[in-house]
Design brief:
Oligomer: single chain
Strand content: 5-15%
Number of strands: 12
Shape: elongated
Structural class: alpha/beta
Helix content: 40-55%
Radius of gyration: 31 Å
Length: 714
Amino acid sequence: MLLSIFDAGKMNNILLILYPLGHLTLAAIAWLLIGWGISLWRKSSSLAMIVTPLLLVSLSYDNFILGTGTFIGAGEALENLNMIRYLLHYLIVPLFIVIGVELAHRAGAAWATTLVRVLSWGIAFGLAGIDITKNYLGMELKPEFFAGMLRYVPENLTAPPIITIVVNLFMLLIGIGIWVRLKWPLLFIGTFIGLIGNALPASTFGTLPASGSESVMAFSLLLTEQTIQFFRNVPAEKQRHKETLMVDVANREALEWEHTIHKNGYTIYQSGSHIQGNFIQVYVPDAPYRDQQGKLRLITYLHGFALCMPKFYEDHLEELAKQGYYVIFPDFQKSTYPDDPEAITASVENQAQNQLSWGKVLQGVIAKGKNFKLGDTLNQEQNRRRKLGMVARKLIKPTFLKYLRVSLALVVFILVIKLFFSWFNRRYGQNLIKLISTVGLSLLHSPIEWIDQAIDITDITWKKLSDHHPNIAQSDFDFYVFGHSLGGLLALSWPLYLEPSQQKFLPKQIITADPAPSTEMGIPQIALWILKLFNSPFAEQPINIRTIGSKLTLPIGILHGADDRIVKPESWVKPGFWQQKSNFDCIASQEKKIYFSLSNKDKKYYPPLIAFHNQAVTDTTYYDDALFENFGGVKTEPNPYNLQYIWLGVDRVVTNKANVNQLLDQFNLPGSPIMITDTLPEKPINWKLIAIAILTLLSFLGLGYWFWHGYTAL
């Protein structure tokens, strides 16, 4: 009893501070937004947009009076100040109709004609007149104290705020229309939050939820206005893309190796920058492998989502080079990983200076609009890397709107992760934020741009090697593409994006490890939801095997893990609920095969051999194990899945010892601790989980019956 009284008293003390401080904070935020609103109004050709700064002035005044009511004290002064609050509310709220119609007109709605825009003013003033006549004139106020705040409330007002509700519903419809036309959902989201916040009874929750939701709605209005101004003032998107995609031959010829690293049996050449999206490492063997026809072997190695550093696959890359194969490792995503070969071996804990502040990016985008430059938010080291010469130009220069969408999405993602994981697994949350933030810049581009970039880098790099190595220039080669996870899907789609001049890079065979059937699979689900919510370019144009599969006719091999939790093997071989064919069946190739490695939990193996998503990865120590335990599996060095499954399969294909659809006989070596099959084993029924589910359901039913029985007994 004493404990509950203490807790209740402690909570009341928190509320006494939280509510007044919350309102004063919202008042200050509104003043920060007023300058932005005035700037947008001055840039706008519409008189109607002056309403938005007026709304923010009203909002700031409202929160200031609520926050300082206790300090002013009960009396005529505070009562008069509250009367002004209600007057501003009745005057300003109907003017949302004017804003909504104007936004719809400028977003291209056919119904928002000049006549409708003029009528909207009349309707707004008419509704304001009704509210003032019916509710304001003759209003009598009484003091009310709630959570440390003193305010005056109407004592003779009992009817629901019909006009406020109607205006909110109208803005919801406008938000839906803009969402459909511009793929911009923020106005709808902000208005919906405002509607929910105002629906909460002030007698129970106080005024802070309503005021906070109104601030969110005002912010969404400003963002929507800035977005519409962007669409009206910039050139057509298609024309801009066409101009950006023009090839700059001079830049291609200017490619120079920034690092040359000599190893035992091979040499690594490196150029470009992760942050520019053109980082490249090339592994050149000292004694190149040649088949009976004298052909060389060239492999492009495509990494998984956010695994952009060679460090994650380094042991395999070195093994391939030692076998005499030329290997190209392009970072097709933009990332903030270190470029310095000596720094690459460090952990993320020592690379804090490389992390990009997405809060600063969002702040810069909002403040500068289409004049925003990413370089203004980068540190000195990142800026240096950004000035390096371009290697390829397949990553389209992001527009202001793309920066706005992605920075908003990542700021929201970071806030959600911090709030959610701070309660039970803060270290994992911090690592997840680092992982997504590291490749955040790549989300400004679509997966199609990524595959185009990887192909272009491969083309340019091979030309560069040929210029300086006569044995390459005078030799033919067989080309192969290997990819893991997201890189596996890009490897599968590689033939579809080759230009006519790049057909020499048509793979003889394609081999992949744990590929995702869609670019929307294989990344943390919460990140994907938020990116789709804000229409990130990454989520706008996904690559899906169901769409491209009918065009894939080359030999294709998929090396999967039976216990992959990131890309579950069932997603490849079992049709969805409404689908007639599985994703694997959608591939048209007549020479295709999917293999599954099984886990081995024998106690003599430590750690246990789990056939997880990161079978192809050899080192995840750049990040904390707490992250990779949930993001595909922890690796510190190659294990049997690398040596006797992934590496073995790639080697047999590249040396023409087996086709990708005939690898099963190459696996399951005598004494091997791993087992490979070409059919996905049926998982046993988890009776324990079913029993827990049944007991939980019965408990809820019993609890519900008990509450209902107790209620009816009363």
